[in-house]
Specification:
825 residues, alpha+beta, OB fold (Dihydrolipoamide Acetyltransferase, E2P), 5 domains, five-stranded antiparallel sheet, 15% strand, flat
Length: 825
């Protein structure tokens, strides 16, 4: 993958436009000949280049689509739904235009949307048919087609580099015969990519589709071929069967299924389809017919791996509803082979769990185990129920019946809560707890751990619930955000176990609330009460006021001002007084604890984070993105917050007298034809009129793009006839990398000990200090130092900020002592 803005990528695209479609090795050699690098590097570039206007032809060549499509005209016959909605079905007539994405100016305002991904857009435009269009479509303005009637032809053409929609001119040009060309390009044994093949037709015949003619779909049909979405095949090809085989192969590979297991899963998915798509009055008969025709195909579901695959494909891939799953499970139980009865009960239990019917789900799992005492999936589910009840002994026993059950994430945790027998007491002795009852009926085989110890177990119970299939899309979405700045191929995998991701899914996404509602009846009474308290605890920003290494922390909640004594063994060895972090601090019996990770917060982030936490409109994705920004590479910015980019330009100017006068009026007097743009003591840009050239040359420099654009506009205003000869924009990080490669080291251009320099620095710094006292400081939550000094609730933050300044006086640095004096501290 390459950056489309990379100058080498743009040079490569320019060569492709100049020479036409090229094979990668030909393209690479042209780049080398043009001086862009070594052959191996250019071959890599042409192999993996990414650009919105790049297309691949059927013969393996690459083409610049803006050049290939220049002058081509594609037509499409309108339907009533297209006219009323302002949406054009892209396949097959307009398929070649789809790579022009929304961000490409050449798209001319057309937006590509997809059925299933953009269903809300289709709903807004009044499209009632959930199967139209089958895949991609082009979104226009709502009334863009109002002047047309059903059956009218519209034309899309690349005009002056931009796609334009017009009525098709009449009379139409003669329809070209594509039979021979398609015979050579379309595979005989299966479907081929429609866009690649049509682009190939255009490359082979420069005159093809240069005037309005019949729609592409009509031309393909006339040639004896058929299209399905973005695929083309010979007439009579069974796309449905091909799609089924492809889906079957994907299912088998994804779940490591044998042939009979795969066949069983596909039979189950067929049953799901019949239940969901057949009208109520015909459903029973349709199900009977399917079961009769399936024969013994369902038998493969007897193995847990196949059962997991069937449930996952039905729920996650096919989107089967809970009621559909319940009915399908009942069909398998009542009419399927006897050996799949455990699977049927397990599926019924999963459907009940998804519907929040926890007690019913447990009954189904018990029935599955009663039929097959070693059915893994049901044993695992029952172990979770036992864990939720606080019965570690039963949960461990159930997991021990599963091969490899000791690897379950909760197994080691459960070991901590096993009861410890008292060998000094007989079964009929009075219990040690003082209840007066016999040991065997009171505490034999039972553990009584204080609530502060069981709080971690409670959190893990909820975390296990949040790993359920219903919440996985949320978990995956947040994990992708969390891992966005990590190049490790395993970054996403690790992010799925990230404490922040799991905690946000539980609390900000509502999973913990569902856990309490659906499984609260299973919890011990004190754990249920504690869980309900956790629902009231908010994520917040905390300041570490004191540390007891290995024991705990004293925290101040920055949002509420509350002070908390927290039991925290690991973090207390790493944090220090004055640190800030974001976390959820919750009660846990007689203690206060932290679950869900600790996110360090830089001073400049605190204000914005508090705004996010205070706002009801902050979504979980926004919160995770903000807290994950610390993993991003360092971002160099100028004092006004814009990315630091070294921008230079060279202009040829003629009116040197006029430009001197106008630039001096705008930027102040020049020094030897050099103007320095300064504001509030900061240099924002430089303009230099170089003598001794013909014509005269004006050089412009700035360190961010907005400033550079301002300078360019100023040059244009000073000399409308100025001609831009060259310009360059180089990110500061790239400049630093180049400098390191060349062994360049920073140099000190001036001696700060020089009396004249020192006096100038001192005067400048004192002026800046006075200005700083009344500036909004991000580290102070956007308040000014004077405001914080006058506010008792913020004075501590100000003092800590000043303590972070260098305390030793030195030239060119702000004086913490002078600032304290000015603020009355």
């Amino acid at each position: 993958m390459t950056d489309p803005t990379d100058p080498t990528v743009e040079a490569a695209m320019a060569l492709l436009r100049e020479h036409g479609p090229l094979h990668p090795h030909e393209w690479a050699r042209l780049l080398v000949a043009a001086g862009h690098g070594y052959l191996a590097d250019m071959e890599d570039l042409t192999e993996y280049i990414d650009h919105p206007r790049l297309g691949y032809l059927a013969d393996g060549r690459s083409a610049a689509l803006d050049s290939l499509l220049d002058g081509r005209v594609l037509t499409h016959r309108l339907t009533a739904v297209e006219i009323s909605s302002g949406i054009l079905d892209a396949h097959p007539d307009l398929t070649p235009l789809l790579p022009f994405d929304d961000h490409d100016l050449a798209a001319g305002g057309l937006h590509t949307i997809f059925r299933d991904l953009d269903d809300d857009v289709f709903d807004e435009r009044g499209v009632d048919d959930p199967d139209w269009p089958k895949d991609a479509a082009l979104l226009l303005e709502p009334d863009a087609l109002a002047e047309f009637r059903p059956g009218d032809l519209v034309a899309l053409a690349l005009v002056d580099g931009v796609l334009r929609l017009t009525a098709a001119a009449v009379p139409l040009a003669g329809a070209p015969d594509l039979t021979g060309a398609l015979t050579d390009l379309v595979p005989q044994e299966g479907p081929g990519p429609l866009d690649d093949i049509v682009w190939q037709l255009m490359a082979d015949d420069p005159s093809l589709l240069t005037a309005p003619t019949l729609p592409l779909g009509d031309l393909i049909t006339a040639a004896g071929y058929v299209c399905d979405g973005d695929a083309i095949a010979v007439e009579g090809f069974d796309f449905a069967a091909h799609s089924g085989k492809s889906h079957l192969a994907k299912v088998a590979a994804a779940h490591h299924l044998t042939d009979d297991e795969t066949d069983a899963v596909m039979a189950f998915l067929a049953l799901i389809g019949v239940i969901e798509r057949t009208p109520d009055d015909e459903r029973e008969r349709a199900v009977d017919a399917l079961v009769a025709s399936a024969g013994d195909r369902f038998a493969g579901l007897a193995r847990p791996n196949a059962a997991r695959a069937a449930f996952g494909e039905a729920y996650a891939t096919c989107g089967a509803g809970n009621e559909t799953l319940r009915v399908a499970a009942a069909v398998l139980r009542d009419r399927g082979p006897r050996r799949i009865a455990p699977t049927a009960h397990w599926l019924a239990g999963k459907a009940a769990e998804l519907d929040g019917r926890t007690a019913e789900a447990e009954r189904h799992y018990e029935r599955a185990v009663s039929v097959d005492p070693n059915w893994d999936e049901a044993l695992e589910e029952l172990a979770r129920f036992a864990s939720d009840r606080g019965d570690a002994v039963r949960a461990i026993g159930l997991l021990d019946r599963i091969p490899g059950g000791y690897r379950d994430p909760m197994y080691d945790l459960l070991q901590l809560f096993r009861p410890v027998d008292r060998p000094d007491l007989g079964r009929n002795d009075r219990c040690w707890c003082g209840s007066g009852r016999k040991y065997k009926v009171c505490h034999l085989g039972k553990a009584e751990h204080p609530l502060e110890q069981r709080a971690g177990w409670l959190y893990q119970k909820a975390a296990s619930f949040a790993q359920g299939i219903a919440w996985r899309p949320l978990l995956l979405s947040l994990a992708q955000i969390r891992s966005a700045h990590d190049d490790d191929p395993m970054a996403l995998y690790h992010a799925l176990d990230d404490p922040l991701v799991a905690d946000v899914v539980m609390f900000e996404c509502g999973t913990f609330e569902r856990f309490v509602a659906e499984r609260g009846d299973l919890l011990p009474a004190d754990e249920l009460l504690l869980a309900q308290q956790w629902l009231l605890a908010e994520r917040s920003v905390h300041e570490v006021e004191a540390v007891r290494p290995g024991e705990g922390l004293t925290l101040r909640d920055v949002r509420t001002g509350d002070r908390l004594q927290v039991t925290e063994r690991t973090a207390s060895r790493q944090l220090r007084a004055g640190d800030f972090f974001c976390a959820r601090v919750v009660p846990a019996g007689s203690t206060t604890q932290i679950f869900g990770g600790i996110e360090p917060i830089a001073p400049g982030q605190r204000g914005r984070l508090i705004e996010l936490l205070d706002s009801d409109s902050t979504d979980p994705e926004e919160l995770v993105e903000f807290l994950s920004a610390r993993f991003a590479p360092p971002r160099l910015v100028t004092t006004d917050g814009h990315p630091m980019v070294a921008c230079t330009a060279v202009f040829e100017v003629a009116d040197t007298a006029g430009i001197r006068r106008k630039l001096s009026r705008r930027f102040g007097a020049a020094e030897k034809d050099r103007w320095t743009w300064t504001e509030k003591g900061s240099v924002l840009g430089v303009l230099n009129l170089a003598p001794g050239t013909e014509p005269w040359v004006l050089e412009v420099e700035a360190m961010n793009e907005p400033r550079f654009e301002s300078l360019v506009e100023a040059v244009g205003a000073a000399d409308p006839g100025a001609r831009l000869r060259e310009q360059a924009r180089t990110p500061a990080a790239e400049l630093m990398a180049q400098a390191q490669e060349k062994g360049v080291r920073p140099v000190q251009p001036v001696d700060p000990e020089d009396p004249e320099i020192a006096a100038a620095l001192a005067e400048h710094i004192r002026g800046y200090e006075q200005q700083w006292l009344d500036e909004a400081i991000p580290a102070l939550g956007g308040h000014t130092p004077r405001e914080c000094a006058a506010d008792p609730t913020r004075r501590d933050e100000l003092i800590r900020l000043l303590e972070s300044f260098p305390q030793q006086e030195r030239p060119g640095a702000m004086s913490a002592g002078r600032l304290r004096e000015a603020l009355g501290l």
